[in-house]
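# nightly structure sweep
# worker-07 picked up a monomer target from the shared queue
# config: single-sequence mode, recycle default, output format = structure tokens
# input follows
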Amino acid sequence: MTRQIRLMSGFFTVGGWTLISRVLGFTRDIMIAAFLGSGPVAEAFLIAFSLPNMFRRFFGEGAFNTAFIPLFSKKVEGGEDAKRFAEDAMAGLATILIIFTVAAQLLMPWMVLAMASGFVADARFDLTVDFARVTFPYILFISISALISGVLNSFGRFAAAAAAPVLLNIILIGTMWIAHRTGGDIGWALVYGVPVAGLGQMGMLWWAASRAGMKLRLRLPRMTPELKRLAIIAGPAALAGGVVQVNLLVGRQVASYFDGAIAWLNYADRLYQLPLGVVGIAIGVVLLPDLSRRLRAGDDAGSQNSVNRAAEFTLLLTLPAAVALVVVPFPIVSVLFQRGAFDAQDAYATALAVSIYGFGLPSFVLHKVLSPIYFAREDTRTPFRFALVSMVVNLALAVGLSYWFGYLAAAIGTSVAGWAMLILLWRGTRHLGTAGQMDDRLKRVLPKIIIASLLMGLAVWGLSILMQGLFVTPTIRYAALALLISVGAIVYASLIIGLGAMSLSEIKQGLRRG
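# output follows
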């Protein structure tokens, strides 16, 4: 079952499935916007759904897997008993999560208060508490799913783990459609769909692991030396995850005092999360086990090449997306979301947040490239210290600027804090060998990618001015947006080739590289 991880082919596998998931996620959010708009039911569901998703950063893809994947990957590389380690880790994780889920049911009013204290004065608060009690068990299913995904990824098997989120969106879209067709309550249909989807994802990945020869068995929890080591590494990562969640809490608290702002920021978040998910998260998923195994094998040159090629492909695909979000957010938002209960005012407010998030997008994506350099060395303390600095920056800007910029202060704080975190991560890699150093190829390609992205942005901005009336015309707005995107893609690709940033032979070489 052990095989060499091929970075770029793994990236395209994860990125491809993530793209499908994000497109379905857009479909889901378009339906939520059309049925519920930015009203109280929409905001209550968005907060209720964000609670288990917030804590999965600790127990799922965040702190736990950050510590688990390097240890598991090194056991795989060293021919040790990786399966038993995974089973012990799963037993320990499940025990903690069951206790935590029960406690959360009792503490839910205080958890909602921490997320959106602006809801206290109206009916949104009680509705959110009721919704959150149903959605919260999702944390158990999705965290076990994340552990199984880490097992599969460590063996270079990325498809099943990357495809699992597709199931979530299919189920939520299906529940809304059924509720709409039968006259049911769409809000409650969404709420009950969340734990069902989590259970489905866990079952799908368990089956995939069994098919791959890693049939994980349920065991009684026990504390082993390996789990103690896992806990020691996961501790600082959990604290760093806590800092990230404080940043999210700050943003939601600011937004909760402005009617509709939580929905506006959520829809804006979905837009910038598309390139972040397809590119950044895909690179991070593939890069961490690859670096862990290379470090165990003493392959410093291979580690540097992996990081640089990840950064190169990340920037190649992300920078033009970031520029587009900054310069033409309104056409994108109006075409995708403006219908039904989501009106022109909602579209304008969302577009402003999208533009601000666009400035931060490159930093968010590059976090996924630089963080594995630390995690592969089992160093979670340094990123935690950097995250504290980022939290202070976000808190000061989001709260301080809210008096002048309202809900947009949350987006400003997020973007600026992202760049602060990136600068600290980059400076810190200087003491971690050659993996974080730019090679000659990246130094040559990066300026050309920046120039091509800026020129593309100028082209689509000019075209959007000429076409501005078409984006709100129901019969042709989809065609207008498709034309805008196509022109941007053609201009960017032409510039990339014309400037000599990357050739077809280099792309093929990257795909063949292990």
